[in-house]
Amino acid sequence: MSLLEVKELTKYYPIKKPFQDTKYIKAIDGISFSVGINTTLGIVGESGCGKSTLAKQLMKLESMTSGEIIFPSLNNEKRHSIQMIFQDPYNSLNPRKKCWQIIAEPLLINTKLSKKACFNQALEMMKLVGLRPELANRYPHMFSGGQRQRIGIARSLILKPKVLICDEPVSALDVSIQAQVLNLLIKLQNELNLTYLFISHDLSVVKHIADNILVMYLGKVVEYGPRQEIFNSPAHPYTQALLSSSPTINSTSNQAFELTGELPSPLDPPQGCHFHQRCPFAVDECKISYPEKKIIGTREVSCHIV
Question: Residue 33's pLDDT is what?
Fold first, then answer.
């Protein structure tokens, strides 16, 4: 059963200029997917493809233009059932608050628990993420980057969510620390039965943690399916290019090509397939119409040539 379903989600930002028609930045343009209980959906794509905007929609930090976000099994628990781990552990923590206060803040705001009860729950959460309780009264600047991200993880878990949005949670950390944090996330997922939406540009990280992968390009989904299928035989040329650019992926010779050019502006996307200007396999049809979604095995692919 799906824990989260997203149907035809769009987010357009209006750009208004005097004496001109309003234009729209199509940050998200008709995205649909579902995520099962205790699974991880990896969301990948270049900067500017709409990954962080998607996270904001799911967290209700911004209102959507259209579409639906459904939690079929949560009913009235929806409000606190989805939380977020932020990318930068250095700027996402309040420097004026102690470690336990940062972790307990969601409890202090959203519950009627006493300060002592919140403190005790913060200590338990510190233990869960591998922080010693005696560090509770330290301030963020007294912790390493990896420890700060553990504080952020503890804060996101304090309200006992079902879904965690991980917005590039290890990209600001050293490689050795990245592995520790990833292993912690996997351990917590198994212990707490969590569902993750893991946003990243690092495909080696996504391969390590994700069950399914959603590949985004200019606000649209170009490929979506099980991790092994996408890594072993990517169907969309953009997916092939992303995998080929990763030094950890062994791409076959007919898949490997260099991704050149820059991501087009979402304010004025190319006609037809948005990727055709950068795609070495593009045909005339790619320049005319946007491809319909095709089902290939257990995957969804939007491409004229597959």
Answer: 95
Rounded mean pLDDT, 201-211: 88
Q: How far apart are the first and last CA of the chain?
A: 30
Q: Quote the DSSP letter at residue 174.
A: -
Mean of the per-residue pLDDT values for the chain?
Answer: 90
pLDDT of residue 271 exceeding 60, the answer is yes
H helices of the chain, in order, are 51-58, 99-110, 115-128, 145-157, 175-192, 203-209, 227-232, 237-244
What SS3 class is residue 74? coil
Q: What is the pLDDT of residue 176?
A: 85
Q: Where are the domains of the chain?
A: 2-75+203-302
* C-alpha span between 163 and 78 (Å, rounded): 10
- As beta bridge partners, residue 224 has 214, 300
Listed residue (41, 104, 21, 34) closest to 230, CA to CA: 41
DSSP 274: T
Question: Under 8 Å CB-to-CB from 92, ≥6 apart: which residues?
Answer: 86, 152
The residue written with tokens 């035809």 in the block is 8
Fold that domain 2-75+203-302 belongs to in CATH:
Rossmann fold (3.40.50)
Mean pLDDT of 118-136: 96
